[in-house]
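Section: Multi-chain targets

For targets with more than one molecule, the full set of components is provided together so that the structure can be written out for the assembly as a whole rather than chain by chain. Components appear in the order listed by the source. The example entry contains two components.
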Amino acid sequence: MFDYDTFWTKPPFSLNSVDKHELLTSALVDLSKLHIAHCEPYSRMMKAIGFEPEKANGYEQIPFLPVSLFKEFKLCSIPEESVFKILTSSGTTGQAVSKIYLDRESAARQQKTLVKIVSEFTGAARLPMLIIDGPNVIKDRAMFSARGAGILGFSIFGSDRTYALNEDMSLNLPAVQAFLEKHSEQRILLFGFTFMIWQHFYQELRKMQETGQRTGVDLSNAVLIHGGGWKKLASEQVSPEEFKSCLEECCGLHEIHDYYGMVEQTGCIYMQCECGHFHASIFSDVIIRRPQDFSIASIGEKGIIQVVSVLPDSYPGHSLLTEDEGVLLGEDNCPCGRLGKYFKVIGRLQNAEIRGCSDTYAEGLKSGK
Amino acid sequence: MKIPTQIQGLEYVVGDASTIERMLEVPRLKPFSDEAVNFLDSLSKILFNAGRGYSDVITFAFWCRRAAVMREARNYIDACVRLGRGIVFHSTPSNVAVNFAFSFATGLLAGNPNIVRLPAKDFEQVRIITSAVQAVLQSQSEMQAYVVFVKYGLIKECSDLFSSICAARIVWGGDMTIKMMRESPLPPRSTEITFADRYSLLIMNADAVVAEKNMARCVRDFWNDTFFTDQNACTSPRLVAWVGECKEEAKESFWSAVKELVRKDYKLQPVQAVQKLAAMYRVALKENVQLVGAEDNYVYRLKVDKLDVGLMDYKFNSGFFFEYDATSLAEIFAFTDVKCQTVTYWGFTKDEIHMAVEMSRPHGIDRIVPIGTSMNFSLVWDGYDLIRSLSRIITIE
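Its structure, encoded as tokens over all components, is:
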């Protein structure tokens, strides 16, 4: 089994494609063997497709599981008594959610990886942190929602953590103002989920400004990190560019980093650099696949996003096929100077309209997400 | 009776509320009445032109022309007096274009006025057939009170209304739609015909495949049974069973020809590729299967070593097949249960099939038809004799 220490000793964007390929291949092949040995459902699936890890000579040959399987089945490679935490994806009531089983070590490793990646963007020092969410989002610690887990995970980067919203998701303007006043001379960290920021923070401030109120919210010394996807905002026809320009106009915020990540591979998120590109760190990678045959798409060619990560050792999530569409923009040559692949996320794959004589209700339910 | 002229979400496409009021009064017709046959023949003539380019519309046009209908009529010559039962309310599947037209024509041929709930999805075929129906109703205005087409997304208020006045209800669209439709009560004397979720199979004679000269045609027939409806019609085979000596050779030549056609003509949407992969793993988690020949995402073949009806609960589509090496036809028939609808076959004689059916005496199977004809509509469907079910007998002694 590979040693995670190999990864800790390297800066997260320091490996070129050749070195990274070698490192990831050995780690991911090891993980495949581990999960085949310890997760019976995973071994059944690999048997059905005839996959033998020892024969893989590159991590791109390791099969990927569609993320939806984590919603339907218990996929876990550790004994019941070692389960320390179960992460769940966010989902509305009644909808199936992904369940991700972690032991103490894997949970710690996720946290450590997140720190390594994010501090490349925020610096090593802790910053005063304003969380654009309500304080109740992390209360139920037994079942972490993706939002709660994200906030807890990022909290480590912040001091004097303050929630910008009340429990009912209304804007807690006095708290925000007091926080900004207290740290007026410092760089501050803002964190939240894209849609929450837009709906409950930006829109509220905007409304006040339109009625001539002075909000006193100046965020020109802040860095905003946000994630959680664009699906909801896309349905309100807000583009990433508009999101940025609106926030800048409204409160002077100009340092904004989106990130791409999913609960099934928590920790190794893909941060957006100064050039607006998502970057893969040494802990993980993206492979863009062609829908017709899952062959690897060329740079600039649209395809389905596969993600691999060396972190999942407690559940077989080291190689996953997402339902997102993306484009690889390049490797090792982003103008920002970080090594590794950089890419763009286009959004969710479009639901298929298929023919047939049984009416499809499941599809309808899915689109209500 | 007064029919409300407007219900939120209900659209009258042909006819209106007053047409339904007249429907309650018009005389019932005899099966295969001159009126109905003339109407359908006129419709057929228009559709041969208007439906050009839509093979399913043309198929319907062939089916409802006078000569074809009269040939069917010969099966219904009985001594007693038969008349239509009364208003037939059809709820047709939302994602098949032309099924509604067959359902409507059957109701009319049985002698009834018809209220037809059209597919929810916008199909060009529906528009073509609907405007042809309107054109015929212009010239044969005495038929107007026999035809109402509506559109609504299963709104209970609408289903309640149409159910409350119908003599027979025909529900397509599978188990869920049937369940929802049953929330709307029928009058005590009314009957119901439901088309529930079913599965279908294909049986292949490997030796005939190896000897086949015209593989392209065979594969096109297979396409019509499967990919033409995203392999999601109840008639589309989910299991391909092989009988004969040269199975491996036959599979190789059959599937490579299928793939060639499918790669060329089938539009695989990216999300289908992901869902198919997930479907395959879902099966692999519970059953002993082996994925074979999966060099691309168009055709998934899952080899099974044992036939089990449980396999048929894994519903997937757009080119997702279980495959089984059988020792005999009887072995395959014997495994079916009541949910098995159509068996398509290739390379067997009718006698061979007859014998196998008699030997295996299966629980399921409503029809056994040659490859490529699984979708051909017939007045006996899913085991129901539709004309007799939608008409009644007046006994005179």
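Chain B has a mean pLDDT of 94.
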